[in-house]
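User: These chains co-purify. Model them together.
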Amino acid sequence: MSFKTPSNLKYLNSHEWILIEGNTATVGITDYAQDSLGDVVYIELPDVGATFAAGAEFGVVESVKASSELYLPAGGTVVAVNEAVKERTELINTDPFGAGWMLKITLSGDMGALLDATAYAAYVDSIKH
Amino acid sequence: MSTQLLKTVLHGEHLRLNARMVEFGGWDMPVQYTGIIDEHRAVRERAGIFDVSHMGEFWVSGRDALAFLQHVTTADISQLGVGHAGYALFCRPDGGVVDDLFVYHIENERYLLVVNASNIAKDWDWIQSHVGTFAVTLHNASDTTALIALQGPHAEAQLATLVGDIAVTLPFHGVASATLAGHAVTLARTGYTGEDGFEIFSANSSAVAIWRALLAAGATPCGLGARDSLRFEPCLALYGHELNDDINPYEARVGWAVKLGKGTFVGSAALNRLKTDYTRRVVAFEVTGKGIARGSYAVHAVDGTPIGEVTTGMPSPTLGKPLGLALVARAYTAEGTEFDIIIRDKPVRAVVVKYPFYQSRYKK
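Assistant: Joint model of the two components:
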């Protein structure tokens, strides 16, 4: 099975993606992450206005079987939270890079250990069995 | 993968169905095929099949087979006529649970025991150590026996297309020989999902044909994820969670499987005392705050005093709520009692609710 890794995104090896557009960015979890978790049934996200360093834990996603902490690929301040995914958690499974987005942030300039799509795809290949 | 995992005879079938495989008790097993929630619903509403060939099968036969099983299990095996099965426990002399199991009375002086996969070696050593002067022969058939569970309200009708009327006439917890897709099987009306259903024992060499026949009859393949969520809702204890060597049957709420009236047996003296004198008990709870409880999370009284631990917790697929089982001090076991589950270092409120969450729907 191969997982989608859109080339316009950057990734953490904890399986979050970030779409950087100027001074702002959108964050979610990857196709591999949603597949590993299985059906997401619960998500905890921060409030608008919360500020995080790069790599900080910003929330948690839970499936029937597992819970997984969420880490922020870049430091910044939350300017929008996707309220739709809190109600319809299946969006994270069905469209992780689109309707399943989680946060929009304004970037502080503090960047995490970001991987490009090729490097992240290679990493996923190395851990999946 | 660093260690060599064991594979059941159906391993190739799981890969063919694109199952997600995980390590479970040393075995490479399917956790899900399409999704835990889909598979869970399939069993509650239709029928699902599970490969449980990793479980252990021991044969006990001989003149003293009954006396031996009366000695090493907590159940009253004398009440189990030929063709009937029952739930039992192995208990240590101090009352701790070595394992829980099903005992199938296959024919006169011949019984089949089915034990948890992760406990096969421990159980085998344990029963052998109690043979003493009993005239019994023990045989560990775990490696040569395949076991498929077919569970759900459509199980009877689906199975009847393959084995005929015996699927209809076999009583609750009955066991009998049958032929399925041309293969000799031992068919039992048992299972661990809270639904009507069957368990089908066969030789390893027959398992793939039986599995495929059941799929063709309409059963949904289900993994260990759904197996766990399905047994959790009717509060069926799982060894390693609600049961272990240091939890006694009364704490785990399986005291009904301990028949103190049958005479002395391994653990009976301690169990006689523990029946009224235990300090903790498994309770069913619903998380009323925000979060999902998981196994081994700490439980605190609302004043912060540690009172126990979550044994199993998950969002219930059938009931749509975050539920859990916890082993807590007896003072906190009444319905309506509030306590906190410590979820990622934060106390999250929960309340004790009616046990079990889901009423089993057996065909009795």
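Chain B has a mean pLDDT of 97.
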